[in-house]
């Protein structure tokens, strides 16, 4: 059974909902994807922050002197040096008819605006959001993110866009490496969201992983903030195609608590104001997250991800002796998420506990910490864990929930892996295209070897011990014999000293 729902999307041109009349447009079931993409692009790339006329701001401001830690006056009076200007501490009310900055007492949030009236921001400005382990906004970046828009009486008012600063570990040429990415779109009134909210989900490389759409956001207790995902109801996660999705409840890391799969069936623009509506139809079957463990992969091993199956399929590879490969079923543009690499979750201790009778998996990959850890550790590789596909699960007839592990290695690589959070599988790897690719293309990537220093030392010591036992040579003689072959490994392990590795 399917259930249909109507949700609203805000366009940047106006912010009043059209009244019911005879001229109301009918649902458009054609070009739905392109219309939504066009709208998002227009909002994200617009350099103009529009003000809203949806009612006057109340007389109450969004902050006062008790909230402010320190004030900076950016005015250039021709007499102060830049150093003195940047350290010109003043009472909030003295910041008048000039640009400046305020630093608040709560988590050192910073508000910067082109104009202040007696300490209250009045005009275009931005407010930096404090980093928090429970804050979804900006979780993929290594720096604090910020909201930008127009202020009235110290309150955000009108179209507001949130920005995510490029990750510190970004790669030149990746989206968002040079410029902040727009990851939050909403209309504010008197400091609070007053419209549906769009949140774009990016990988650490700036690749779009999907969107969260919140029709009626539950506002925070304080003004001039974004919203927390876990506190919202009736949230829709949309895959990058803006057609397939999941409606339900999500935690702050983007993991599904409970919901229903569904699809966007149609869209329409309600008159000249440009209000967008989407028709989303849910499946009846209840859905929950399905995160793998050390011993269990997925509950539904043969149920394919609805987005992945629209883009790729698995069949015999064009590479001789490579077995199966992954092929595009549609043409795609560069930087498109194409497939997911899910797997059994192993700890570092699991991987580096040596067993001479255990065959090393060819599908073993490393990620950073799983969801629920501190957000800084989450993306910076601390408490890393590994994803693995066993030989049994590598059989496509037995496991089809994700296809990323089937992508073969080649110097003709046309895609790469990036860390991501899947609403069902949790923290995994996503595969994306490096360039425009036509339908029928086999996907390839260049496998990179990541070596753990402690694990590598332990593995090398085990290898030397075996060599000593099976050859009869002393540890020193055997080490001297194999030392030339370890130079490459030493360089890959951050130029670890070979003599240190060989010491007992």
Low-confidence stretches: 4-20, 76-80, 133-142, 370-382, 491-504
Overall geometry comes to: globular
CATH architecture of the largest domain: Single Sheet
| Number of beta-strand segments | 27
In CATH terms, the superfamily of the largest domain is Histone H3 K4-specific methyltransferase SET7/9 N-terminal domain
Average pLDDT: 76
Q: What is the helix content?
A: 10-25%
Rg of Cα set: 27 Å
The total tally of domains equals: 3
Number of helices: 8
The CATH topology annotation of the largest domain reads as: Histone H3 K4-specific methyltransferase SET7/9 N-terminal domain
The CATH class label of the largest domain is Mainly Beta
Helix-and-strand structural type: alpha+beta
Topology readout:
Blueprint: E1 2-9, H1 32-45, E2 68-73, H2 82-86, E3 98-104, E4 110-117, E5 120-121, E6 123-128, E7 146-152, E8 155-156, E9 158-164, E10 181-189, E11 192-193, E12 197-202, E13 208-214, E14 235-238, E15 244-250, E16 256-270, E17 275-283, E18 312-316, E19 324-328, E20 337-341, E21 344-347, H3 348-352, E22 365-367, H4 375-380, E23 385-388, E24 408-409, E25 415-422, E26 426-433, E27 444-445, H5 453-471, H6 475-482, H7 487-492, H8 498-502
Parallel strand pairs: 24-27
Antiparallel strand pairs: 1-17, 2-3, 3-4, 4-5, 4-6, 6-7, 7-8, 7-9, 9-10, 10-11, 10-12, 12-13, 13-14, 14-15, 15-16, 16-17, 18-19, 20-26, 21-23, 22-23, 25-26
Question: What do these coordinates show?
Answer:
13% of the residues lie in helices and 31% in strands. It is α+β, with helices and mostly antiparallel strands. The protein has helices spanning 32-45, 82-86, 348-352, 375-380, 453-471, 475-482, 487-492, 498-502; strands at residues 2-9, 68-73, 98-104, 110-117, 120-121, 123-128, 146-152, 155-156, 158-164, 181-189, 192-193, 197-202, 208-214, 235-238, 244-250, 256-270, 275-283, 312-316, 324-328, 337-341, 344-347, 365-367, 385-388, 408-409, 415-422, 426-433, 444-445. The protein has 8 helices and 27 strands. The chain folds into 3 domains: 2-63 and 130-283, Histone H3 K4-specific methyltransferase SET7/9 N-terminal domain, CATH 2.20.110; 308-445, SET domain (Beta-clip-like), CATH 2.170.270; 455-502, no CATH class.
């Amino acid at each position: 059974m399917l259930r249909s729902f109507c949700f609203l999307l805000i366009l940047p041109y106006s912010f009043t909902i059209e009244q019911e009349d005879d001229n109301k447009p009918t649902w458009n079931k054609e070009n739905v994807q392109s219309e939504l993409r066009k709208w998002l692009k227009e909002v994200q790339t617009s350099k103009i922050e529009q003000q809203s006329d949806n009612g006057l701001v109340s007389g109450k401001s969004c902050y006062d002197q008790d909230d402010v830690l320190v004030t900076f006056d950016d005015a250039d009076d021709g007499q102060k040096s830049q150093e003195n200007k940047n350290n010109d501490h003043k009472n909030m009310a003295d910041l008048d008819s000039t640009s400046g900055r305020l630093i608040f007492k709560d988590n050192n949030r910073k508000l910067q605006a082109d104009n202040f009236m007696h300490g209250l921001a009045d005009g275009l400005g931005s407010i930096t959001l404090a980093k928090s382990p429970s804050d979804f906004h900006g979780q993929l970046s290594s720096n604090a993110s910020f909201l930008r828009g127009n202020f009235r009486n110290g309150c955000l008012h009108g179209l507001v866009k949130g920005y995510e600063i490029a990750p510190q570990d970004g790669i030149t040429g990746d989206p968002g490496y040079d410029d902040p990415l727009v990851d939050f779109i909403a209309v504010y009134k008197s400091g609070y969201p007053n419209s549906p909210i769009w949140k774009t989900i990016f990988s650490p490389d700036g690749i779009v992983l999907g969107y969260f759409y919140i029709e009626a956001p539950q506002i925070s207790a304080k003004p001039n903030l974004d919203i927390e995902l876990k506190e919202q109801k009736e949230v829709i996660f949309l895959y990058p195609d803006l057609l397939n999705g999941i409606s339900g409840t999500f935690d702050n890391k983007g993991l599904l608590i409970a919901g229903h799969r569904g699809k966007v069936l149609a869209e329409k623009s309600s008159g000249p104001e440009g209000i967008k509506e989407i028709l989303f139809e849910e499946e009846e079957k209840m859905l929950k997250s399905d995160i793998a463990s050390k011993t269990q992969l997925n509950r539904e091993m043969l149920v394919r991800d609805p987005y992945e199956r629209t883009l790729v399929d698995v069949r015999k590879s064009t590479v001789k002796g490579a077995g199966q490969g992954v092929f595009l079923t549609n043409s795609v543009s560069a930087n498109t998420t194409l497939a997911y690499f899910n797997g059994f979750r192993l700890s570092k201790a699991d991987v580096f506990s040596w067993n001479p009778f255990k065959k090393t998996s060819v599908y073993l990959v490393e990620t950073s910490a799983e969801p629920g850890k501190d957000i800084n550790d989450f993306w910076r590789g601390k408490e890393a864990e590994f994803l693995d596909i066993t030989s049994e699960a590598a059989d496509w007839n037995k496991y089809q929930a994700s296809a990323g592990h089937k992508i073969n290695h080649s110097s003709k690589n046309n895609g790469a892996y990036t860390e991501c959070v899947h609403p069902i599988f949790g923290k995994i790897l996503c595969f994306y295209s490096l360039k425009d690719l036509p339908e029928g293309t086999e996907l390839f990537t260049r496998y990179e070897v990541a070596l753990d220093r402690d694990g590598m030392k332990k593995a090398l010591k085990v290898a030397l011990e075996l060599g000593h036992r099976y050859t009869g040579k002393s540890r020193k003689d055997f080490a001297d014999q194999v030392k030339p072959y370890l130079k490459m490994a030493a360089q890959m392990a951050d130029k670890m000293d070979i003599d240190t590795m060989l010491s007992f």
